[in-house]
Specification:
Shape: elongated
CATH topology of the domain at 30-109: Arc Repressor Mutant, subunit A
Structural class: mainly alpha
Strand content: under 5%
CATH architecture of the domain at 30-109: Orthogonal Bundle
CATH superfamily of the domain at 30-109: Winged helix-like DNA-binding domain superfamily/Winged helix DNA-binding domain
Low-confidence stretches: 17-28
Strand order of the largest sheet: 1-2
Order of helices and strands: EEHHHH
Mean pLDDT: 80
Helix content: 40-55%
């Protein structure tokens, strides 16, 4: 007895696998480090976010956190974290100057900030 193709049930349609990343976070699309005076005071940041290169570098380089941990905590794709670190290492002097400016601004704010009134 031979089985012909007409007796077989049709095979189910093939489905494409679900997309792993949203288009805006597709690591193959290329991450851009950008700067805008109206966002983060012009600091270099990951495009489409308010996450600065300085924030990522501080956590990984000075904070001893892994890129994977930073990616998870900041809800960023690993490609974004690595792009930010790459920018940091290519522009260390720029990022350190920003860190110094931020520290000086924080110090000025602490010195000139509100102080409790003295009561007698």
């Amino acid at each position: 007895m031979s089985v012909t193709g007409s007796n077989r049930s049709p095979s189910p349609p093939t489905r494409e696998p679900p997309q792993r990343f949203k288009p805006e976070t597709d690591p193959t699309a290329g991450v851009t480090i950008t700067s805008d005076p109206d966002v983060l005071g012009g600091e270099p940041r990951i495009d489409g976010t308010r996450v600065g290169v300085r924030h990522v570098a501080t956590r990984v380089v000075e904070g001893d956190q892994t890129p994977a941990y930073v990616s998870d905590q900041l809800d960023l794709p690993m490609a974004d974290v690595h792009e930010a670190l790459s920018y940091y290492y290519a522009n260390v002097d720029e990022i350190r100057a920003i860190q110094r400016e931020q520290a000086a601004a924080a110090e000025r704010t602490a010195e000139n900030g509100l102080k409790p009134t003295e009561t007698v």
